[in-house]
Amino acid sequence: MDGKQLIARRIARELKDGFYVNLGIGLPTMIAAYLPEGIDVILQSENGLLGIGPPPPPDEEDPDLINAGKQPVTALPGSSFFGSDQAFAMIRGGHMNMSVLGAMQVSCRGDLANWTIPGKMVKGMGGAMDLVASAARVIVAMEHNTKDGSFKIVEECSLPLTGKEVVHDIVTELGWFQVDGGRLVMKEIVEGVSEDEVEGRTGCQVRFAQDLSPMLPF
Hints:
- By secondary structure, this protein is an alpha/beta fold.
- It has one domain (3-214): 3-Layer(aba) Sandwich (Glutaconate Coenzyme A-transferase).
- The protein has four helices and 13 strands.
- The longest helix has 10 residues, at 3-12.
């Protein structure tokens, strides 16, 4: 499997029975395809859908049934549809157990930048600011570096912030990182990845947990 699949599969293992979860645009939406069997997780989308199912086969896509990222989804039995005002009332009311978001930058203290790059046209900030301010747990799912190799996990974010000290965990193709009291602690590492590689590809100090364990997708 590729790095994105590994990230999605590993985060899916964190979802527990009865959780209400919002999956952000991009990589996080892949998690819906890997939900553990035997548990009931309710996925929510800001555009007004509660009860998102796995992605549909290509020949069964419904252009009217999409998530907030305009990707085709399925609706599980018992799903409900409503306005985005009600969707945000759920989020702002603190009813999400977990939010999984992508990011352009994350600091070692959990500051998040994921909504704009200065000088580029954006159509709006989306729901990320509400999600990080309201969710019980915020996990960032992203590739460890940009396409040109620049750091995405940094000492200080240089991009406009979505929220300060809001990220609890960061999951990349290198492993699982936890934000712990302003420090970045690596809890799990992917097989074949060395601690030297992690340090060389991260723009801030990384501490390695004494019980550092392999990051497994299953």
